[in-house]
């Protein structure tokens, strides 16, 4: 008897963020186009979260595929230790055009976690190179910055990090400056700086993704960055999720008056094709590693650092983003979200709603706090999959974060399925 792809998968593969005693069978996706995916049985799904927020231009985008093919037949990879290549130089020139003006130096790695890891290491070593001990990082409560050790340390979601607490760098957490918590957050930041030797403050600008799309105002982040500047504390903007159009601007930091010292980029960077990440720096930080002492160099790297094929994908992805049509589409999605928000916010099971750019989130009214992978969350997830919609609720938070090319018809179907779920699933 022939086994299905899903059955073979269960024999061999260990999936991320998965308790395999509970989940052991996964739909096997064999094809994708635009906002749609198809499994081995021919069932169609709407990918309403852009496959973990990486896919702004839809699946199997021919412009990106053509650029990757052309690069693969020219130069697929060359080591970046001791060499450079034309594609990474062209990408750097494009990054200078679209990033905040203080971002001048770029370090390439593999994914969002490693982008954060590089920023944390650089912020600590910058001071070490000067003979100054600054050993503390400040981060938001409930933040999520990745799964490598430095990124875990600055993440505040316990289930992801509790097994490793004794092996992490020193972190002080402060409240997110959501409505009503603005002054508490500022006071906590000032206190943390006063009582510790702080190297940097890391944050997800405007939206904390894995915390449940928690949103706060740009003016409040501006105030926190200003406090850091006054106290010579570096600021790190983790734009892995928010970058490249998600919030309605190229970067969430474009909403700010004060700009961060470092930025972490990944996910949509290559249009959802090839794993790649970039950590960006001010000239001042880079200069802190330039020395006659070889030990002052940043000894960090990855085999596929600045991979030419990934750079080619990033270049074409940026060119697509610069097409006015894309931001027109983002505006249309935002307008649809706002219209749906007006409707669904009156639902008796909806506690709160929020919208920014292509991000829509609603909080389901529950009698007790729901864990990240609670039974209620799993019921919603399974309901959506059954209806052919890929959504991954966070506890009792249901969010949509689609590709920018999603049709209005598909978006309306996603909205309707969420409302059906609210009507049918007891909370």
TrEMBL record:
Its main location: cytoplasm. The modification N6-(pyridoxal phosphate)lysine is found at residue 267. InterPro entries: Aminotrans_3 (IPR005814), BioA (IPR005815), PyrdxlP-dep_Trfase (IPR015424), PyrdxlP-dep_Trfase_major (IPR015421), PyrdxlP-dep_Trfase_small (IPR015422). Pathway: Cofactor biosynthesis; biotin biosynthesis; 7,8-diaminononanoate from 8-amino-7-oxononanoate (SAM route): step 1/1. Pyridoxal 5'-phosphate binds at residues 112-113, 238, 302-303. It is found in: Cytoplasm. Its EC number is 2.6.1.62. The record marks 17 as: Participates in the substrate recognition with KAPA and in a stacking interaction with the adenine ring of SAM. Pfam families: Aminotran_3. Gene3D superfamilies: Aspartate Aminotransferase, domain 1, Type I PLP-dependent aspartate aminotransferase-like (Major domain). Substrate binds at residues 52, 267, 301, 392. It catalyses: (8S)-8-amino-7-oxononanoate + S-adenosyl-L-methionine = S-adenosyl-4-methylsulfanyl-2-oxobutanoate + (7R,8S)-7,8-diammoniononanoate. Keywords: Aminotransferase, Biotin biosynthesis, Cytoplasm, Pyridoxal phosphate, S-adenosyl-L-methionine, Transferase. Its cofactor is pyridoxal 5'-phosphate. It is an enzyme of class 2 (transferase). Homodimer. Belongs to the class-III pyridoxal-phosphate-dependent aminotransferase family. BioA subfamily. Catalyzes the transfer of the alpha-amino group from S-adenosyl-L-methionine (SAM) to 7-keto-8-aminopelargonic acid (KAPA) to form 7,8-diaminopelargonic acid (DAPA). It is the only aminotransferase known to utilize SAM as an amino donor. This is Adenosylmethionine-8-amino-7-oxononanoate aminotransferase.
